[in-house]
């Protein structure tokens, strides 16, 4: 770590100070700036920097799914470059808020990047860091991905909470989601046309309010809409349409703030045979579905406390066969099945679920009750000289060699290898084919 810091420091000084480096990369995100610094300092060629870059790229290809709202505690280990991603869906008109709290070294960075899927490619649309929240409004229905990745060689514990909320306030005072009883696209006039808005039902005379700051552009009446008001949202370049009003209480040209009264709920126009309601429409080069803009979402989520005794620690499966899922919930796709005794590392924790990583770096979610810490195992005897390796494959770096006869404690397993502990408290992996006998003796 010291060598890496020295190399980066030398590079910054050669550019006449950090300020000029920042200016050179001012159009880049913090993540891109950091990656560029590694390249300029020729650190990109080092194995650990390559692992860091690959981790960020691989995370975009193999992301896990969440449902909103979501809160999770997670951990990054300094010795293992990694990135965590959270994939989710949003509706047009919704606003995402990402709240992050990280425990780390004072100057360490945890990069926060938001992507949207466009033509099967992830395009970055926003970024933040561990010292501030990230917020973003969406202009279309979208598949999104949030990536968290720390800089090299730092330990970081974090909690992240993702919530979505409507961009606008409901234009009918006191209305709730239950008040919306007719939605965008419903057939009208026997299927001759489609409903270009939503109907929000309320008592006659209930105030109709501005859903955002803007300017009233037109006040009038028509056979279809009855008494109507149009307003322009300059910030979002949207036009709002309020129809079937009992009365209008504003004039064209009036500047309004969110919550200002525009008129009163009624049933004028072609709604004269229905209960009083507001027809609310949004237009931008055509009709837009208003539902995501005003539909509220229950964002109550159980707070997660960072547990360092769990995060980053080795666990194993204790049931015969368990599902390894792409998200924390039974509604998410099964990513694979794990057998009893399978080794995994806990990288995150949310309500009822662990985010876990297998030795081959595959990630998924598993029920908390289906795993247990790797603490005790069974005694096995080795009859041949074997290497205890750093990973469960024949290319893993040997940590030590054991000369038979030798007894070790088998703690967990993965794809033909056993995770063992010696009497000298050395842990690592040995090939199952080299184990000739086993005694079910728990220590």
TrEMBL record:
InterPro entries: Cell_wall_metabolism_enzyme, Dup_hybrid_motif, M23ase_b-sheet_dom, SH3-like_bac-type
Species in which this protein is naturally found: Fulvivirga kasyanovii
Boundaries of every M23ase beta-sheet core domain copy: 194-289
CDD domains hit by this protein: M23_peptidase (cd12797)
UniProt xrefs under Gene3D superfamilies: Glucose Permease (Domain IIA) (2.70.70.10), SH3 Domains (2.30.30.40)
Domain SH3b: 321-371
UniProt name for this protein: Peptidase M23
PROSITE patterns, per the entry: PROKAR_LIPOPROTEIN
Pfam families documented for this protein: Peptidase_M23, SH3_3
């Amino acid at each position: 770590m010291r060598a890496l810091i020295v190399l980066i420091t030398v590079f910054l000084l050669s550019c006449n100070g950090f300020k000029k480096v920042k200016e050179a990369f001012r159009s880049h995100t913090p993540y891109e700036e950091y990656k560029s610094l590694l390249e300029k300092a020729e650190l990109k060629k080092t194995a650990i920097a390559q692992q860091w870059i690959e981790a960020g790229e691989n995370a975009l290809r193999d992301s896990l799914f969440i449902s909103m709202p979501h809160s999770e505690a997670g951990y990054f280990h300094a010795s293992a470059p990694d990135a965590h991603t959270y994939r989710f869906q949003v509706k047009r008109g919704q606003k995402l808020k990402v709240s992050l709290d990280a425990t780390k070294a004072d100057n360490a960075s945890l990069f926060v990047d938001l992507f949207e899927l466009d033509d099967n490619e992830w395009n970055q649309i926003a970024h933040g860091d561990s010292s501030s929240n990230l917020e973003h409004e969406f202009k279309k229905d979208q598949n999104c991905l949030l990536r968290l990745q720390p800089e090299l060689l730092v330990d970081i514990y974090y909690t992240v909470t993702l919530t979505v909320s409507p961009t606008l306030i409901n234009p009918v005072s006191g209305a709730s989601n239950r008040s919306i009883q007719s939605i965008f696209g419903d057939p009208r006039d026997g299927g001759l046309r489609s409903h270009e808005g939503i109907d929000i039902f309320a008592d006659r005379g209930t105030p109709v309010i501005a859903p955002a700051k803007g300017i009233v552009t037109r006040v009038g009446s028509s056979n279809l809409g009855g008494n109507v008001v149009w307003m322009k949202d300059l910030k979002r370049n949207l036009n709002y349409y309020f129809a079937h009003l009992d009365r209008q209480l504003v004039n064209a040209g009036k500047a309004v703030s969110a919550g200002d009264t525009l008129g009163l709920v009624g049933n004028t126009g072609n709604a004269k045979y229905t209960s009083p309601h507001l027809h609310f429409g949004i237009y931008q080069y055509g009709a837009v579905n208003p539902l995501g803009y005003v539909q509220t979402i229950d964002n109550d989520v159980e707070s997660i406390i960072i547990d360092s005794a769990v995060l980053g620690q080795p666990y194993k499966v204790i049931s015969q066969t368990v599902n390894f899922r792409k998200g924390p919930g039974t509604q998410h796709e099964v990513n694979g099945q794990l057998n009893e005794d399978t080794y995994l590392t806990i990288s995150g924790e949310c309500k009822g679920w662990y985010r876990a990583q297998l030795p081959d770096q595959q990630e998924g979610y598993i029920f908390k009750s289906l795993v247990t810490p790797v603490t005790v195992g069974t005694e096995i005897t080795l009859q041949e000289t074997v290497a205890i390796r750093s990973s469960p494959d024949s290319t893993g770096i040997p940590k030590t060699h054991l000369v038979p006869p030798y007894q070790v404690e088998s703690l967990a397993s993965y794809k033909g290898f056993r995770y063992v502990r010696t009497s000298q408290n050395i842990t690592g992996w040995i090939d199952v084919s080299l184990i000739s006998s086993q005694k079910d003796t728990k220590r």
